[in-house]
Amino acid sequence: MSEFIPFLALCQLLTISFVSYTLFIVTHTCEEAFNITMSIRLQLLERRALSGSSESNEKALYELCSLGTKDARIFAHIFPTLLRFLSKKRLPQVTKCSHAIPLLTSEIITVIHVLCTISTGMTLRDSGAGRNSIILGPSVREYWPTIYRWCHFLHNSFVESDLAIYGTCGEAALSALSCVSEVFALLLRIKIISLQEIKAIPGAGALMVRVHLCALADYLVSGFSGHIFDAFKFSNDWDTHWKTIYSQTAALIDPRLISLATKNLCRITLQRPLDYHSLANCFKFLAGVVSSSSSLNEHFLRSRSVYFTTHLIRQISKIISCPSFEREYAINGYYFLETWKWSMKYLYFALEHGGSESIVLALNSGLLQALWKVTKCNFPQQLHFSVMPQSFTDLIGLISTASIYRSVHWQKPLERLFDKSPLIDIQKSGVSIWVQFRTLVKKRIKLRYRYEANGIMFCSNPECKSPPSCKVFRCSRCMIAFYCSRSCQKAHWIDKHRKDCDDHVNNWEDGHPRPAEERDMTLIQHIVLSELWSIRHGLLQRQTDYRRSSSLPLPPILINFVDFTQLHQELGMKVLTPEEARRNYPGRLDTQLDSCVEELQEGVGIGPIVIVKLPHPGQAMYISMTLKDPNFG
Protein backbone atom coordinates (compact mmCIF):
# COMPACT_ATOMS: atom_id res chain seq x y z
CA MET A 1 0.00 0.00 0.00
CA SER A 2 2.85 2.33 0.79
CA GLU A 3 4.13 1.95 -2.80
CA PHE A 4 1.03 3.74 -4.15
CA ILE A 5 1.41 6.89 -1.95
CA PRO A 6 4.05 8.60 -4.17
CA PHE A 7 1.99 7.73 -7.22
CA LEU A 8 -1.16 9.30 -5.71
CA ALA A 9 0.80 12.43 -4.72
CA LEU A 10 2.12 12.74 -8.26
CA CYS A 11 -1.41 12.43 -9.65
CA GLN A 12 -2.65 15.15 -7.28
CA LEU A 13 0.22 17.44 -8.32
CA LEU A 14 -0.52 16.88 -12.02
CA THR A 15 -4.21 17.54 -11.42
CA ILE A 16 -3.49 20.82 -9.60
CA SER A 17 -1.07 21.90 -12.34
CA PHE A 18 -3.62 21.10 -15.04
CA VAL A 19 -6.36 23.03 -13.26
CA SER A 20 -4.03 26.02 -12.71
CA TYR A 21 -2.96 25.98 -16.34
CA THR A 22 -6.57 25.74 -17.48
CA LEU A 23 -7.53 28.69 -15.25
CA PHE A 24 -4.57 30.71 -16.57
CA ILE A 25 -5.58 29.99 -20.18
CA VAL A 26 -9.21 30.85 -19.47
CA THR A 27 -8.27 34.05 -17.58
CA HIS A 28 -5.78 35.12 -20.23
CA THR A 29 -8.29 34.37 -22.96
CA CYS A 30 -10.99 36.34 -21.13
CA GLU A 31 -8.59 39.27 -20.62
CA GLU A 32 -7.67 39.21 -24.28
CA ALA A 33 -11.33 39.04 -25.20
CA PHE A 34 -12.05 41.97 -22.86
CA ASN A 35 -9.19 43.99 -24.32
CA ILE A 36 -10.39 43.28 -27.84
CA THR A 37 -13.94 44.21 -26.90
CA MET A 38 -12.76 47.40 -25.13
CA SER A 39 -10.52 48.29 -28.07
CA ILE A 40 -13.42 47.93 -30.50
CA ARG A 41 -15.65 49.95 -28.18
CA LEU A 42 -13.06 52.71 -27.88
CA GLN A 43 -12.57 52.86 -31.64
CA LEU A 44 -16.32 53.20 -32.18
CA LEU A 45 -16.56 55.92 -29.54
CA GLU A 46 -13.56 57.75 -31.02
CA ARG A 47 -15.09 57.70 -34.50
CA ARG A 48 -18.40 59.01 -33.21
CA ALA A 49 -16.71 61.69 -31.08
CA LEU A 50 -14.80 63.10 -34.06
CA SER A 51 -17.54 62.73 -36.68
CA GLY A 52 -19.59 65.84 -35.96
CA SER A 53 -21.46 67.89 -33.38
CA SER A 54 -24.66 65.93 -32.85
CA GLU A 55 -25.93 65.00 -29.40
CA SER A 56 -24.89 61.34 -29.83
CA ASN A 57 -21.36 62.41 -30.73
CA GLU A 58 -21.18 64.56 -27.61
CA LYS A 59 -22.32 61.58 -25.53
CA ALA A 60 -19.58 59.47 -27.11
CA LEU A 61 -16.99 62.10 -26.16
CA TYR A 62 -18.22 62.23 -22.55
CA GLU A 63 -18.13 58.43 -22.36
CA LEU A 64 -14.54 58.46 -23.60
CA CYS A 65 -13.64 61.04 -20.96
CA SER A 66 -15.31 58.95 -18.26
CA LEU A 67 -13.36 55.83 -19.25
CA GLY A 68 -10.09 57.73 -19.60
CA THR A 69 -10.13 59.11 -16.06
CA LYS A 70 -10.40 55.62 -14.55
CA ASP A 71 -7.63 53.70 -16.31
CA ALA A 72 -4.21 54.99 -17.36
CA ARG A 73 -3.99 52.57 -20.30
CA ILE A 74 -7.36 53.65 -21.67
CA PHE A 75 -6.37 57.29 -21.24
CA ALA A 76 -3.13 56.73 -23.20
CA HIS A 77 -5.26 55.17 -25.95
CA ILE A 78 -7.80 57.99 -26.23
CA PHE A 79 -5.42 60.90 -25.50
CA PRO A 80 -4.61 61.67 -29.19
CA THR A 81 -8.35 61.61 -29.94
CA LEU A 82 -9.07 64.21 -27.25
CA LEU A 83 -6.35 66.46 -28.68
CA ARG A 84 -7.66 66.01 -32.23
CA PHE A 85 -11.12 66.97 -30.98
CA LEU A 86 -9.73 70.24 -29.57
CA SER A 87 -7.82 70.98 -32.78
CA LYS A 88 -10.92 70.47 -34.95
CA LYS A 89 -13.06 72.74 -32.79
CA ARG A 90 -13.24 76.38 -33.79
CA LEU A 91 -13.10 79.03 -31.13
CA PRO A 92 -16.73 79.98 -30.46
CA GLN A 93 -18.14 83.47 -30.19
CA VAL A 94 -18.82 84.21 -26.54
CA THR A 95 -22.38 85.39 -25.94
CA LYS A 96 -23.11 87.71 -23.05
CA CYS A 97 -26.28 88.40 -21.11
CA SER A 98 -27.62 91.84 -20.34
CA HIS A 99 -25.19 92.27 -17.42
CA ALA A 100 -22.21 91.57 -19.72
CA ILE A 101 -21.42 88.24 -18.01
CA PRO A 102 -20.00 85.66 -20.48
CA LEU A 103 -22.17 82.55 -20.74
CA LEU A 104 -20.91 78.98 -20.71
CA THR A 105 -22.50 77.30 -23.71
CA SER A 106 -22.67 73.50 -23.96
CA GLU A 107 -19.89 73.68 -26.55
CA ILE A 108 -17.55 75.52 -24.15
CA ILE A 109 -18.51 73.24 -21.26
CA THR A 110 -17.52 70.26 -23.42
CA VAL A 111 -14.11 71.81 -24.14
CA ILE A 112 -13.55 72.45 -20.42
CA HIS A 113 -14.54 68.85 -19.69
CA VAL A 114 -12.01 67.55 -22.23
CA LEU A 115 -9.22 69.74 -20.80
CA CYS A 116 -10.03 68.58 -17.27
CA THR A 117 -9.97 64.96 -18.49
CA ILE A 118 -6.52 65.57 -19.97
CA SER A 119 -5.15 66.99 -16.71
CA THR A 120 -6.79 64.21 -14.63
CA GLY A 121 -5.72 61.40 -16.95
CA MET A 122 -2.09 62.53 -16.99
CA THR A 123 -1.96 62.33 -13.19
CA LEU A 124 -3.32 58.78 -12.87
CA ARG A 125 -1.27 56.68 -10.49
CA ASP A 126 -0.22 54.16 -13.14
CA SER A 127 1.43 56.83 -15.28
CA GLY A 128 4.44 58.53 -13.70
CA ALA A 129 6.19 61.59 -15.09
CA GLY A 130 8.69 59.46 -17.02
CA ARG A 131 5.96 57.32 -18.58
CA ASN A 132 3.97 60.43 -19.49
CA SER A 133 6.95 62.00 -21.23
CA ILE A 134 7.57 58.89 -23.33
CA ILE A 135 4.00 57.90 -24.22
CA LEU A 136 2.10 61.18 -24.13
CA GLY A 137 4.91 63.66 -24.79
CA PRO A 138 4.91 63.53 -28.62
CA SER A 139 1.14 64.14 -28.78
CA VAL A 140 1.30 67.00 -26.26
CA ARG A 141 4.12 68.72 -28.12
CA GLU A 142 2.33 68.30 -31.45
CA TYR A 143 -0.90 69.81 -30.12
CA TRP A 144 0.66 72.33 -27.70
CA PRO A 145 -0.47 75.30 -29.87
CA THR A 146 -4.03 73.90 -29.73
CA ILE A 147 -3.93 73.52 -25.93
CA TYR A 148 -2.57 77.07 -25.59
CA ARG A 149 -5.21 78.44 -27.98
CA TRP A 150 -8.07 77.06 -25.89
CA CYS A 151 -6.51 78.06 -22.57
CA HIS A 152 -5.97 81.58 -23.90
CA PHE A 153 -9.58 81.72 -25.10
CA LEU A 154 -11.05 80.52 -21.80
CA HIS A 155 -8.92 82.83 -19.69
CA ASN A 156 -9.46 85.97 -21.78
CA SER A 157 -13.16 85.39 -22.47
CA PHE A 158 -14.21 84.55 -18.93
CA VAL A 159 -11.59 85.28 -16.26
CA GLU A 160 -10.13 88.54 -17.62
CA SER A 161 -13.58 89.69 -18.71
CA ASP A 162 -15.08 89.24 -15.24
CA LEU A 163 -12.12 90.87 -13.53
CA ALA A 164 -12.21 93.87 -15.88
CA ILE A 165 -15.91 94.48 -15.24
CA TYR A 166 -16.47 93.39 -11.65
CA GLY A 167 -13.04 92.90 -10.11
CA THR A 168 -13.94 89.31 -9.19
CA CYS A 169 -14.70 85.96 -10.84
CA GLY A 170 -18.20 84.61 -11.42
CA GLU A 171 -19.13 80.93 -11.62
CA ALA A 172 -18.25 80.60 -15.30
CA ALA A 173 -14.91 82.34 -14.81
CA LEU A 174 -14.09 80.07 -11.87
CA SER A 175 -14.73 76.97 -13.98
CA ALA A 176 -12.45 78.30 -16.70
CA LEU A 177 -9.76 79.40 -14.23
CA SER A 178 -9.76 76.08 -12.39
CA CYS A 179 -9.39 74.18 -15.66
CA VAL A 180 -6.68 76.34 -17.23
CA SER A 181 -4.55 76.67 -14.08
CA GLU A 182 -4.57 72.91 -13.55
CA VAL A 183 -3.60 72.20 -17.17
CA PHE A 184 -0.70 74.68 -17.10
CA ALA A 185 0.53 73.44 -13.72
CA LEU A 186 0.51 69.84 -14.89
CA LEU A 187 2.30 70.46 -18.19
CA LEU A 188 5.07 72.34 -16.40
CA ARG A 189 5.34 70.02 -13.42
CA ILE A 190 5.86 66.81 -15.42
CA LYS A 191 8.14 68.67 -17.86
CA ILE A 192 6.36 67.65 -21.05
CA ILE A 193 6.44 71.22 -22.37
CA SER A 194 9.90 72.75 -22.50
CA LEU A 195 10.82 76.39 -22.06
CA GLN A 196 11.72 76.59 -25.76
CA GLU A 197 8.20 75.45 -26.72
CA ILE A 198 6.67 78.04 -24.38
CA LYS A 199 8.86 80.77 -25.88
CA ALA A 200 7.88 79.64 -29.39
CA ILE A 201 4.34 80.97 -28.84
CA PRO A 202 4.35 84.74 -28.20
CA GLY A 203 2.58 85.56 -24.96
CA ALA A 204 2.40 81.96 -23.66
CA GLY A 205 4.63 82.64 -20.66
CA ALA A 206 2.77 85.85 -19.81
CA LEU A 207 -0.56 83.99 -19.96
CA MET A 208 0.74 81.38 -17.51
CA VAL A 209 1.76 84.15 -15.12
CA ARG A 210 -1.64 85.89 -15.40
CA VAL A 211 -3.40 82.58 -14.77
CA HIS A 212 -1.19 82.05 -11.74
CA LEU A 213 -2.00 85.47 -10.29
CA CYS A 214 -5.71 85.03 -10.94
CA ALA A 215 -5.65 81.61 -9.31
CA LEU A 216 -4.24 83.17 -6.16
CA ALA A 217 -6.92 85.85 -6.24
CA ASP A 218 -9.73 83.38 -5.73
CA TYR A 219 -9.77 81.22 -2.65
CA LEU A 220 -11.60 78.36 -4.39
CA VAL A 221 -8.65 77.66 -6.68
CA SER A 222 -5.78 78.83 -4.51
CA GLY A 223 -4.50 75.26 -4.29
CA PHE A 224 -3.77 75.29 -8.01
CA SER A 225 -1.73 78.44 -7.51
CA GLY A 226 0.71 76.57 -5.30
CA HIS A 227 1.02 73.77 -7.84
CA ILE A 228 1.67 76.09 -10.75
CA PHE A 229 4.35 77.95 -8.81
CA ASP A 230 6.01 74.64 -7.92
CA ALA A 231 5.97 73.86 -11.62
CA PHE A 232 7.79 77.11 -12.45
CA LYS A 233 10.37 76.34 -9.79
CA PHE A 234 11.18 72.99 -11.41
CA SER A 235 12.70 74.90 -14.30
CA ASN A 236 16.38 75.78 -14.17
CA ASP A 237 15.49 78.86 -16.18
CA TRP A 238 13.41 80.41 -13.39
CA ASP A 239 15.90 83.17 -12.64
CA THR A 240 16.51 84.07 -16.26
CA HIS A 241 13.04 83.66 -17.73
CA TRP A 242 10.11 83.47 -15.31
CA LYS A 243 11.35 86.29 -13.09
CA THR A 244 11.47 88.56 -16.13
CA ILE A 245 7.95 87.55 -17.19
CA TYR A 246 6.59 88.10 -13.67
CA SER A 247 8.20 91.52 -13.53
CA GLN A 248 6.83 92.54 -16.95
CA THR A 249 3.36 91.11 -16.34
CA ALA A 250 3.03 92.67 -12.90
CA ALA A 251 3.11 96.14 -14.43
CA LEU A 252 -0.06 95.27 -16.40
CA ILE A 253 -1.98 93.66 -13.54
CA ASP A 254 -5.22 95.33 -12.48
CA PRO A 255 -4.71 96.48 -8.85
CA ARG A 256 -8.21 95.17 -8.10
CA LEU A 257 -6.88 91.67 -8.69
CA ILE A 258 -4.23 92.17 -6.00
CA SER A 259 -6.87 93.59 -3.69
CA LEU A 260 -9.06 90.52 -4.23
CA ALA A 261 -6.11 88.19 -3.66
CA THR A 262 -5.20 90.00 -0.44
CA LYS A 263 -8.76 89.87 0.87
CA ASN A 264 -8.92 86.13 0.30
CA LEU A 265 -5.52 85.59 1.90
CA CYS A 266 -6.61 87.67 4.86
CA ARG A 267 -9.79 85.61 5.12
CA ILE A 268 -8.01 82.27 5.28
CA THR A 269 -5.54 83.57 7.88
CA LEU A 270 -8.53 84.38 10.10
CA GLN A 271 -10.29 81.04 9.61
CA ARG A 272 -10.43 78.61 12.52
CA PRO A 273 -9.14 76.00 12.28
CA LEU A 274 -6.43 77.26 9.94
CA ASP A 275 -6.28 75.67 6.49
CA TYR A 276 -2.53 74.99 6.45
CA HIS A 277 -2.57 73.38 3.00
CA SER A 278 -3.97 76.51 1.33
CA LEU A 279 -1.87 78.84 3.47
CA ALA A 280 1.36 77.02 2.66
CA ASN A 281 0.66 77.14 -1.08
CA CYS A 282 -0.36 80.80 -1.04
CA PHE A 283 2.60 82.06 0.98
CA LYS A 284 5.02 79.95 -1.01
CA PHE A 285 3.64 81.67 -4.09
CA LEU A 286 3.83 85.12 -2.50
CA ALA A 287 7.41 84.69 -1.31
CA GLY A 288 8.56 83.66 -4.77
CA VAL A 289 6.68 86.29 -6.72
CA VAL A 290 7.44 89.35 -4.58
CA SER A 291 11.12 88.43 -4.60
CA SER A 292 10.90 88.64 -8.42
CA SER A 293 8.66 91.68 -8.83
CA SER A 294 8.98 94.87 -6.79
CA SER A 295 5.77 96.13 -8.41
CA LEU A 296 3.76 93.18 -7.08
CA ASN A 297 5.48 93.52 -3.73
CA GLU A 298 4.33 97.13 -3.51
CA HIS A 299 0.76 96.19 -4.51
CA PHE A 300 0.53 93.61 -1.72
CA LEU A 301 2.10 96.00 0.80
CA ARG A 302 -0.56 98.59 0.08
CA SER A 303 -3.21 95.98 0.80
CA ARG A 304 -1.84 95.61 4.35
CA SER A 305 -0.36 92.18 3.73
CA VAL A 306 2.23 92.87 6.45
CA TYR A 307 -0.52 93.20 9.03
CA PHE A 308 -2.37 89.95 8.33
CA THR A 309 0.86 88.00 7.78
CA THR A 310 2.15 89.16 11.16
CA HIS A 311 -1.19 88.16 12.66
CA LEU A 312 -0.78 84.65 11.17
CA ILE A 313 2.78 84.35 12.50
CA ARG A 314 1.55 85.34 15.96
CA GLN A 315 -1.17 82.70 15.79
CA ILE A 316 1.24 79.94 14.76
CA SER A 317 3.78 81.01 17.41
CA LYS A 318 1.09 80.50 20.07
CA ILE A 319 0.52 76.96 18.81
CA ILE A 320 4.26 76.19 18.75
CA SER A 321 4.70 77.46 22.30
CA CYS A 322 1.73 75.49 23.66
CA PRO A 323 2.05 72.03 25.26
CA SER A 324 -0.33 70.74 22.56
CA PHE A 325 2.17 71.58 19.79
CA GLU A 326 3.18 67.97 19.22
CA ARG A 327 -0.47 66.98 18.79
CA GLU A 328 -1.00 69.81 16.28
CA TYR A 329 2.18 68.79 14.49
CA ALA A 330 1.02 65.16 14.34
CA ILE A 331 -2.20 66.27 12.62
CA ASN A 332 -0.91 68.96 10.24
CA GLY A 333 2.86 68.39 10.40
CA TYR A 334 4.19 69.11 6.91
CA TYR A 335 1.81 71.89 5.88
CA PHE A 336 1.89 73.43 9.37
CA LEU A 337 5.66 73.91 9.19
CA GLU A 338 5.49 74.95 5.52
CA THR A 339 2.99 77.69 6.42
CA TRP A 340 5.27 78.85 9.25
CA LYS A 341 8.36 78.89 7.02
CA TRP A 342 6.83 80.56 3.94
CA SER A 343 4.85 83.19 5.87
CA MET A 344 8.12 84.33 7.48
CA LYS A 345 9.89 84.19 4.12
CA TYR A 346 7.21 86.36 2.52
CA LEU A 347 7.24 88.79 5.44
CA TYR A 348 11.02 89.13 5.09
CA PHE A 349 10.72 90.18 1.43
CA ALA A 350 7.81 92.49 2.24
CA LEU A 351 9.67 94.26 5.06
CA GLU A 352 12.87 94.47 3.04
CA HIS A 353 10.99 96.23 0.24
CA GLY A 354 8.64 98.30 2.40
CA GLY A 355 11.39 99.57 4.67
CA SER A 356 10.94 101.27 8.02
CA GLU A 357 7.25 102.05 7.49
CA SER A 358 6.38 98.35 7.04
CA ILE A 359 8.73 97.26 9.83
CA VAL A 360 7.07 99.63 12.30
CA LEU A 361 3.66 98.16 11.34
CA ALA A 362 4.94 94.61 11.95
CA LEU A 363 6.53 95.58 15.27
CA ASN A 364 3.38 97.29 16.47
CA SER A 365 1.44 94.15 15.45
CA GLY A 366 3.46 91.94 17.81
CA LEU A 367 6.03 90.34 15.50
CA LEU A 368 8.99 90.45 17.91
CA GLN A 369 7.01 88.99 20.82
CA ALA A 370 5.88 86.12 18.57
CA LEU A 371 9.42 85.30 17.43
CA TRP A 372 10.80 85.54 20.96
CA LYS A 373 8.05 83.23 22.26
CA VAL A 374 9.16 80.55 19.78
CA THR A 375 12.83 81.05 20.69
CA LYS A 376 12.11 80.18 24.33
CA CYS A 377 10.26 76.93 23.49
CA ASN A 378 11.71 73.51 24.21
CA PHE A 379 10.65 71.48 21.20
CA PRO A 380 12.16 68.17 20.02
CA GLN A 381 15.65 68.47 18.54
CA GLN A 382 14.54 66.96 15.22
CA LEU A 383 12.13 69.88 14.77
CA HIS A 384 14.64 72.61 15.60
CA PHE A 385 15.57 73.57 12.02
CA SER A 386 11.95 73.25 10.87
CA VAL A 387 10.59 75.52 13.60
CA MET A 388 13.50 77.98 13.38
CA PRO A 389 14.50 77.99 9.68
CA GLN A 390 16.84 80.49 8.05
CA SER A 391 13.92 82.85 7.40
CA PHE A 392 13.44 83.10 11.20
CA THR A 393 17.00 84.36 11.67
CA ASP A 394 16.75 86.56 8.57
CA LEU A 395 13.71 88.37 9.98
CA ILE A 396 15.47 89.18 13.25
CA GLY A 397 18.54 90.35 11.34
CA LEU A 398 16.44 92.56 9.05
CA ILE A 399 14.72 94.31 11.96
CA SER A 400 18.07 94.68 13.70
CA THR A 401 19.69 96.43 10.72
CA ALA A 402 16.62 98.63 10.26
CA SER A 403 17.06 99.92 13.81
CA ILE A 404 19.37 102.53 12.32
CA TYR A 405 16.18 104.41 11.42
CA ARG A 406 14.84 106.76 14.05
CA SER A 407 11.25 105.78 13.18
CA VAL A 408 12.01 102.10 13.93
CA HIS A 409 13.80 102.36 17.28
CA TRP A 410 11.91 105.40 18.54
CA GLN A 411 9.23 104.98 21.25
CA LYS A 412 6.85 102.00 20.78
CA PRO A 413 8.46 100.02 17.94
CA LEU A 414 11.66 98.98 19.73
CA GLU A 415 12.69 101.30 22.55
CA ARG A 416 9.73 100.47 24.76
CA LEU A 417 9.47 96.82 23.70
CA PHE A 418 12.87 95.92 25.13
CA ASP A 419 11.98 97.34 28.54
CA LYS A 420 8.76 95.35 28.90
CA SER A 421 7.90 91.68 29.30
CA PRO A 422 8.59 89.34 27.56
CA LEU A 423 11.50 90.99 25.70
CA ILE A 424 13.05 92.31 28.90
CA ASP A 425 14.38 88.76 29.47
CA ILE A 426 16.54 88.80 26.33
CA GLN A 427 19.75 89.97 28.00
CA LYS A 428 19.86 87.14 30.52
CA SER A 429 18.68 84.51 28.03
CA GLY A 430 22.09 84.13 26.40
CA VAL A 431 20.60 83.61 22.93
CA SER A 432 23.32 85.24 20.84
CA ILE A 433 21.30 86.68 17.96
CA TRP A 434 18.77 88.26 20.36
CA VAL A 435 21.45 89.62 22.70
CA GLN A 436 23.33 91.10 19.75
CA PHE A 437 20.06 92.57 18.44
CA ARG A 438 19.19 94.21 21.77
CA THR A 439 22.73 95.52 22.29
CA LEU A 440 22.78 97.14 18.85
CA VAL A 441 19.39 98.80 19.29
CA LYS A 442 20.23 100.12 22.76
CA LYS A 443 23.50 101.56 21.45
CA ARG A 444 21.71 103.36 18.62
CA ILE A 445 19.07 104.73 20.97
CA LYS A 446 21.82 106.26 23.13
CA LEU A 447 23.45 107.78 20.04
CA ARG A 448 20.14 109.29 19.01
CA TYR A 449 19.61 110.87 22.42
CA ARG A 450 23.13 112.27 22.37
CA TYR A 451 22.86 113.83 18.92
CA GLU A 452 19.41 115.25 19.55
CA ALA A 453 20.63 116.77 22.82
CA ASN A 454 23.66 118.26 21.06
CA GLY A 455 21.55 120.10 18.54
CA ILE A 456 20.92 117.97 15.46
CA MET A 457 18.65 119.79 13.00
CA PHE A 458 15.50 118.01 11.72
CA CYS A 459 14.06 120.92 9.74
CA SER A 460 14.46 120.16 6.01
CA ASN A 461 15.05 123.82 5.16
CA PRO A 462 18.86 124.25 5.04
CA GLU A 463 18.46 127.98 5.78
CA CYS A 464 16.51 127.35 9.00
CA LYS A 465 17.55 129.60 11.91
CA SER A 466 15.40 127.97 14.62
CA PRO A 467 17.07 126.20 17.56
CA PRO A 468 17.58 122.43 17.04
CA SER A 469 15.32 121.54 19.96
CA CYS A 470 12.19 123.00 18.33
CA LYS A 471 9.37 120.65 17.33
CA VAL A 472 8.83 119.77 13.67
CA PHE A 473 5.87 118.68 11.51
CA ARG A 474 5.94 116.68 8.30
CA CYS A 475 4.86 117.73 4.80
CA SER A 476 1.29 116.46 4.54
CA ARG A 477 1.66 115.68 0.83
CA CYS A 478 4.82 113.56 0.56
CA MET A 479 5.14 112.71 4.28
CA ILE A 480 8.95 112.81 3.95
CA ALA A 481 10.15 116.38 4.60
CA PHE A 482 9.92 118.04 8.06
CA TYR A 483 9.68 121.72 9.04
CA CYS A 484 9.80 123.75 12.20
CA SER A 485 7.44 126.46 10.89
CA ARG A 486 5.23 127.43 7.96
CA SER A 487 7.75 130.05 6.90
CA CYS A 488 10.50 127.43 6.61
CA GLN A 489 8.14 125.15 4.69
CA LYS A 490 7.24 127.94 2.26
CA ALA A 491 10.86 128.98 1.70
CA HIS A 492 11.96 125.40 1.06
CA TRP A 493 8.95 124.79 -1.24
CA ILE A 494 9.97 127.69 -3.47
CA ASP A 495 13.65 126.81 -3.38
CA LYS A 496 13.61 123.03 -3.89
CA HIS A 497 10.90 120.94 -2.30
CA ARG A 498 8.16 121.61 -4.86
CA LYS A 499 9.85 119.41 -7.45
CA ASP A 500 10.99 116.82 -4.89
CA CYS A 501 7.50 116.60 -3.45
CA ASP A 502 5.97 116.04 -6.91
CA ASP A 503 8.55 113.35 -7.65
CA HIS A 504 7.89 111.55 -4.36
CA VAL A 505 4.12 111.54 -4.89
CA ASN A 506 4.35 110.46 -8.54
CA ASN A 507 6.78 107.65 -7.73
CA TRP A 508 4.53 106.41 -4.97
CA GLU A 509 1.49 106.45 -7.27
CA ASP A 510 3.51 104.54 -9.88
CA GLY A 511 4.10 101.70 -7.43
CA HIS A 512 7.44 102.66 -5.90
CA PRO A 513 7.83 102.49 -2.10
CA ARG A 514 7.88 105.69 -0.10
CA PRO A 515 11.48 106.87 0.56
CA ALA A 516 12.81 107.21 4.08
CA GLU A 517 11.90 110.33 6.05
CA GLU A 518 14.41 113.18 5.81
CA ARG A 519 14.84 113.35 9.59
CA ASP A 520 15.68 109.63 9.51
CA MET A 521 18.36 110.26 6.89
CA THR A 522 19.78 113.16 8.91
CA LEU A 523 20.19 111.02 12.01
CA ILE A 524 21.43 107.98 10.05
CA GLN A 525 24.50 109.83 8.80
CA HIS A 526 25.46 110.73 12.37
CA ILE A 527 24.89 107.18 13.67
CA VAL A 528 26.81 105.60 10.77
CA LEU A 529 29.72 108.00 11.26
CA SER A 530 29.87 107.20 14.97
CA GLU A 531 29.75 103.42 14.45
CA LEU A 532 32.37 103.53 11.70
CA TRP A 533 34.67 105.72 13.78
CA SER A 534 34.57 103.10 16.54
CA ILE A 535 36.00 100.51 14.11
CA ARG A 536 38.29 102.95 12.27
CA HIS A 537 41.44 101.10 13.30
CA GLY A 538 40.09 97.86 11.85
CA LEU A 539 39.16 99.56 8.57
CA LEU A 540 42.65 101.03 8.19
CA GLN A 541 44.18 97.64 9.02
CA ARG A 542 42.13 96.05 6.24
CA GLN A 543 43.62 98.55 3.79
CA THR A 544 47.13 97.71 5.03
CA ASP A 545 46.47 93.97 4.61
CA TYR A 546 45.06 94.60 1.15
CA ARG A 547 48.21 96.46 0.07
CA ARG A 548 50.42 93.66 1.39
CA SER A 549 48.46 90.89 -0.31
CA SER A 550 48.11 92.63 -3.68
CA SER A 551 50.89 92.12 -6.20
CA LEU A 552 49.58 94.93 -8.40
CA PRO A 553 50.55 98.60 -8.10
CA LEU A 554 47.91 100.29 -6.00
CA PRO A 555 46.72 103.91 -5.91
CA PRO A 556 47.59 106.01 -2.87
CA ILE A 557 43.95 106.01 -1.78
CA LEU A 558 41.84 102.92 -1.05
CA ILE A 559 38.17 102.77 -0.09
CA ASN A 560 36.47 100.58 2.51
CA PHE A 561 33.04 99.09 1.88
CA VAL A 562 30.76 98.30 4.85
CA ASP A 563 27.36 96.62 4.52
CA PHE A 564 24.91 97.93 7.14
CA THR A 565 22.14 95.68 5.75
CA GLN A 566 23.82 92.65 7.38
CA LEU A 567 23.59 91.91 11.07
CA HIS A 568 27.21 90.72 10.99
CA GLN A 569 28.83 93.68 9.24
CA GLU A 570 32.27 92.07 9.10
CA LEU A 571 30.89 89.58 6.56
CA GLY A 572 30.10 92.45 4.19
CA MET A 573 33.38 94.36 4.50
CA LYS A 574 35.85 94.70 1.66
CA VAL A 575 38.48 97.07 0.26
CA LEU A 576 38.14 98.72 -3.16
CA THR A 577 40.28 100.86 -5.42
CA PRO A 578 38.68 104.15 -6.58
CA GLU A 579 38.24 102.62 -10.07
CA GLU A 580 36.42 99.59 -8.65
CA ALA A 581 34.22 101.84 -6.53
CA ARG A 582 33.22 104.01 -9.50
CA ARG A 583 32.60 100.94 -11.64
CA ASN A 584 30.46 99.12 -9.07
CA TYR A 585 28.63 102.12 -7.62
CA PRO A 586 28.08 104.62 -10.46
CA GLY A 587 25.85 107.68 -10.65
CA ARG A 588 25.62 110.22 -7.86
CA LEU A 589 28.03 108.20 -5.75
CA ASP A 590 30.78 109.02 -8.25
CA THR A 591 30.48 112.75 -7.41
CA GLN A 592 30.47 111.97 -3.68
CA LEU A 593 33.69 109.98 -4.06
CA ASP A 594 35.46 112.88 -5.79
CA SER A 595 34.48 115.15 -2.91
CA CYS A 596 35.66 112.58 -0.33
CA VAL A 597 39.05 112.19 -2.05
CA GLU A 598 39.62 115.97 -1.96
CA GLU A 599 38.57 116.08 1.69
CA LEU A 600 40.94 113.24 2.60
CA GLN A 601 43.90 114.86 0.84
CA GLU A 602 43.38 118.17 2.65
CA GLY A 603 42.68 116.84 6.14
CA VAL A 604 44.93 115.43 8.84
CA GLY A 605 43.76 112.70 11.22
CA ILE A 606 40.73 111.87 9.15
CA GLY A 607 39.77 108.98 6.90
CA PRO A 608 39.47 106.44 5.48
CA ILE A 609 36.85 106.93 2.79
CA VAL A 610 33.98 104.47 3.31
CA ILE A 611 31.14 103.42 1.02
CA VAL A 612 28.18 102.35 3.14
CA LYS A 613 25.29 100.15 2.04
CA LEU A 614 22.17 101.06 4.01
CA PRO A 615 18.71 99.45 4.26
CA HIS A 616 16.18 101.56 2.39
CA PRO A 617 12.63 101.11 1.06
CA GLY A 618 12.59 99.51 -2.38
CA GLN A 619 16.29 98.85 -2.69
CA ALA A 620 19.44 99.41 -0.68
CA MET A 621 20.97 102.89 -0.64
CA TYR A 622 24.69 103.70 -0.95
CA ILE A 623 26.44 106.73 0.50
CA SER A 624 30.12 107.59 0.74
CA MET A 625 31.80 109.54 3.53
CA THR A 626 35.22 110.48 4.83
CA LEU A 627 35.51 109.46 8.47
CA LYS A 628 36.03 112.21 11.03
CA ASP A 629 35.92 112.12 14.78
CA PRO A 630 32.19 112.57 15.54
CA ASN A 631 33.04 114.22 18.87
CA PHE A 632 34.57 117.26 17.13
CA GLY A 633 33.60 119.62 14.37
Walk me through the structure.
The chain is mostly helical and 633 residues long. The chain has five domains: 1-39; 51-253; 270-453, no CATH class; 455-521, no CATH class; 535-626, no CATH class. Helix content is 67%, strand content 4%. The protein contains 30 helices and six strands. The protein has helices at 4-50, 55-68, 72-88, 106-121, 129-135, 137-142, 144-166, 171-189, 195-199, 204-217, 222-233, 238-250, 255-270, 276-290, 294-302, 305-320, 325-354, 356-364, 367-375, 384-387, 390-402, 406-409, 412-416, 426-429, 432-453, 486-509, 518-534, 536-549, 578-584, 588-602; strands spanning 473-474, 482-483, 559-563, 574-576, 609-614, 621-626. The protein has a four-stranded mixed beta sheet, sandwiched between helices. Strands 1-2 form a two-stranded antiparallel sheet. α4 packs parallel to α8, α8 (171-189) packs across α10 (204-217) and α10 (204-217) crosses α13. It starts with a helix and ends in a 7-residue tail after the last strand.
